[in-house]
Design a protein that fits this description.
By secondary structure, the chain is of the alpha+beta class. The chain is built from 27 helices and 23 strands. The strands form 3 sheets. The chain has a 6-stranded mixed β-barrel. A 6-stranded mixed β-barrel has the order 15-16-21-18-20-19. The protein has a 4-stranded antiparallel sheet with strand order 14-22-13-23. Strand 19 (583-588) and strand 20 form a beta hairpin. Helix 2 packs antiparallel against helix 9, helix 2 packs antiparallel against helix 23 and helix 9 packs parallel to helix 23.
Length: 807
């Protein structure tokens, strides 16, 4: 019996090739999309959960209140805080601090030298707090000696090849020697901590200087990433109360006045968007949105399946009637329908894995992930998916069975049973399913167009500074910083170099410097912690900043290096400055010896040096009083042979620091990286929009073909009576086009609302124009018309003699 069922199902599938192809293609592509989306979401949601007792590990975050009451939230804390908290909070078992630094590392013979950005100083308790696997070495003592170093397996191969790395020597910053005391397994992809080297925190005293071990001097710099592992699983609210009580009692007054701290579970770090995050994060809401998109695409395909499965039953009602005459009961018919739907769903699932295997490598490349299709069998994704498909199968099998069981056999045997599935109620259901499909398709098109519009807005927006052909060379060596004037003059002599300057840092690296500043404007005194960039005199020419008032820095004015300030329009507005007369500034902490006192010499037009997610902040520029602040050389290029110019710049810098690896990047590329996640999400929405509208149109094609087949006799009679092809095409298409128009009307407010919410994450954003909705609607309408029109035209040009000869 089972074998006969399968033969019948196969014959029907071959006979109705259009219906079969639409079902298999639509469902398989939808299932493949769901598999990839669910794999991606599962991968993201499991970040940092591989650590033992991950629910007890917390990151210590910092909250600083500015003068205007704004609270800035930082992912980092500072060196003295974690030991203080551990000493006063009994529920903390261990704390571990991490201090990142980009350093040069060479092998024992100093032959291979690399600049390593993922170098961390860590407390000896690091391996007690975290569960990173140690392949070789003693976990208990690996970080005890100040000259020990831990490296990952890949780094061991990079520096020592296939030779034994344990016990070998590595040189850091040329002058500091470390012995390999342990080798860690390569970090899991799902780790929010990405490092290649770990050395004891005690080593920072030798490399940074003895000042870093003084708790009184490290409450503001350098920023560290502190983690606490609790003895027991304490509620976050309870832990926060302990933290607050410790701060009230033990924090120095100058720190407690403006700063507070909180605990963030390590499994939430990957979804955190605080300032100074170590790694790019992702919003949980984006993941939930992807889940919704995956489910909706699957529902679109499932509705296609339901619609087309019911049309297939209509075409075989006589066969069902004959089977009932021959003794088949409802149970037997139900089993057959269930088996047929399951067979289609199983075939779609198999085909989906083939699609997944084809498309997953491209997805991994796009999203920079390492997803494996076989993971669906490990993490339960396949069980949820199979359960959903089984539910669909049961519904599409027993819904028609309930209808069939209510009517007499003769209705089916005489060919009148089709009316049971073409009544108003059935028509409403079919129409609702089609409307839903196109609502989804149009909404995704609207979302894609607006996302692309925002990306174009970001790329085309005038940032207020020169970003094209600006080469940025990070400076890691004091030999270059201490002789910057000589270095600058050498680079300026090169062909293809227009301007050269230097800047302390970019905000996306470690935020702004935040110095206590007093502004005296015509006797009106304002004190504030001011965002500050420390620069070299030529900064304004190099970045083509626009002066609004006054002048820029110049070596022609001898006092500019010690007594001059420039601020942007936002800072001038904040301090109430309308002209430059009698405006004096005093900045504390900028130099270890004295307060830097000077006057305001210029105001520049606001410029973007952060992501467009953030509003332009008040900013003060001043010439760096110390050479060690100049961490980035900026070179504005003018020639066409950029690669040759870069090689010449490298040669010049190598003359001053021969043992230092040469690094560089372009400023425009750095800005583009700030929106990497948004670009990827926009691309994914584009692909999913295409998938959704293709599946919706395939369903529309199938329903149109069925409708045309059912109305062939009517079409034949109309043609005999003189109806034109255009009139018949209009007859067949008008109903479907109305449904698509209804879907467009419903989709427009949904798409507008979704994109308005998404754009709220940008301080500077595109406007949602009317043409977006016209474009989305006309696209859907055109594709739907082509789909319906083609099938309708095919039916309208059928010879009426062929249709009516048997009537």
């Amino acid at each position: 019996m089972f074998k006969n069922y399968l033969k019948t199902i196969f014959r029907r599938a071959v006979r109705d090739r259009l219906n079969t192809s639409i079902n298999l293609f639509g469902l398989s592509v939808a299932i493949a999309s769901c598999l990839i989306i669910f794999l991606f979401v599962d991968n993201e949601l499991n970040y940092d959960r591989f650590h033992k007792d991950a629910d007890k590990i917390y990151r210590i975050t910092t909250h600083e209140t500015t003068e205007n009451g704004t609270i800035r939230n930082f992912a980092n804390s500072f060196l003295p805080y974690a030991p203080l908290l551990e000493s006063q909070f009994s529920s903390i078992a261990k704390t571990a601090r991490l201090l990142p630094q980009s350093v040069s590392v060479s092998d024992d013979k100093k032959l291979n030298v690399f600049q390593e950005p993922r170098f961390f100083y860590a407390d000896p308790t690091f391996l007690e707090v975290f569960s990173f696997p140690l392949i070789q070495g003693d976990r208990a003592t690996a970080l005890e000696a100040p000259d020990n170093i831990l490296i990952t397996k890949s780094v061991a191969k990079k520096y020592f090849g296939e030779n034994e790395a344990l016990g070998k020597v590595l040189h850091v910053e040329q002058d500091y020697t470390f012995k390999v005391a342990g080798i860690l397994a390569d970090l899991p992809e799902q780790s929010s901590l990405k490092f290649d080297f770990i050395v004891p925190m005690a080593a920072a005293e030798a490399i940074w200087g003895p000042w870093i071990a003084d708790p009184n001097r490290t409450w503001y710099y350098p920023p560290v990433y502190s983690f606490a592992k609790l003895n027991t699983q304490v509620a976050v609210e309870e832990a926060t109360q302990y933290v607050k009580s410790v701060e009230k009692q033990f924090l120095p007054d100058h720190v407690a006045d403006k700063r507070s701290h909180s605990l963030q579970n390590v499994t939430d770090v990957h979804f955190s968007s605080l300032e100074n995050e170590l790694q790019p994060s992702i919003d949980r809401n984006v993941l939930y949105l992807f889940i919704a998109v995956g489910i909706v695409i699957l529902l679109v395909a499932a509705f296609n399946f339901v619609n087309l499965f019911l049309t297939k039953i209509v075409l075989h009602l006589k066969t069902l009637g004959i089977r009932k005459v021959l003794g088949a009961d409802n149970g037997s018919i139900g089993k057959h329908l269930l088996l047929e739907s399951l067979a289609f769903l199983f075939a779609s699932l198999v085909l989906a894995f083939i699609w997944g295997a084809l498309f997953l490598p491209g997805f991994n490349l796009l999203m920079k992930t390492q997803l494996n299709l076989l993971s669906v069998f490990k993490n339960g994704v396949i069980l949820y998916l199979c359960g959903l498909l089984l539910l669909i199968s049961v519904l599409v099998s027993f819904a028609p069975l309930m209808v069939i069981s209510k009517y007499r056999l003769m209705a089916f045997l005489k060919g009148r049973g089709t009316s049971l599935f073409r009544g108003k109620k059935s028509s409403y259901i079919q129409s609702a399913l089609l409307v839903f499909q196109f609502v989804v398709a149009v909404t995704l098109i609207i979302s894609t167009v607006i996302m692309q519009s925002q990306m174009h807005y970001i790329r085309d927006k005038n940032l207020g500074i020169q970003q094209d052909q600006v080469l940025v060379v990070p400076v890691r060596d004091a030999a270059i910083q201490n002789r910057f004037s000589a270095v600058k003059n050498q680079i300026l002599r090169l062909n293809g170099v227009k301007e050269v300057s230097a800047i302390s840092n970019f905000p996306w690296e470690k935020g702004f410097y935040d110095f206590e500043t007093t502004v005296n404007s015509n006797g009106q005194v304002t004190k504030a912690n001011a965002n500050t960039l420390l620069v070299e005199e030529s900064i304004m020419n190099t970045l083509d900043m626009t002066l609004v008032k006054g002048r820029g820095f110049s070596k022609e004015y001898g006092t500019d290096s010690t007594m001059a300030y420039v601020m942007n329009e936002a800072a001038a507005l904040k301090f109430g400055i309308e002209d430059l007369e009698n405006v004096k500034l005093a900045m504390k902490g900028i130099s270890s010896s004295t307060t830097k006192e000077g006057r305001l010499i210029g105001i520049v037009k606001n410029f973007h040096i952060q992501s467009l997610h953030d509003k332009i902040q008040p900013l003060i520029l001043t010439v760096s009083p110390e050479s060690y602040f100049l961490d980035n050389i900026l070179i504005q290029l003018s020639g066409a042979d950029i690669s040759s110019t870069i090689s010449e710049v490298e040669a010049q810098l190598k003359a001053y620091a021969p043992g230092r690896p040469f690094e560089y990047f372009f400023l425009d590329e750095a800005f583009e990286q700030l929106y990497e996640r948004e670009v990827l999400i926009s691309a994914l929405f584009q692909y999913f929009s295409i998938i959704a509208i293709v599946i919706a149109c395939l369903g529309l094609l199938g329903i149109t073909a069925f409708t045309a087949t059912q109305r062939l006799n009517e079409i034949g009679i109309r043609k005999v009576l003189g109806s034109s092809v255009v009139g018949i095409v209009n007859l067949l298409t008008s109903g479907f086009i109305k449904l698509v128009l209804i879907a467009i009307v419903i989709a427009i407010p949904i798409g507008w609302w979704m994109m308005t919410k998404w754009l709220e994450g940008f301080a500077y954003k595109t406007t949602i124009s009317w043409w977006v909705f016209v474009l989305a609607g006309s696209t859907a309408l055109t594709i739907a018309f082509i789909t319906v029109g083609w099938q309708s035209l095919k039916a309208a040009t059928t010879n009426p003699v062929e249709v009516l000869r048997n009537e």
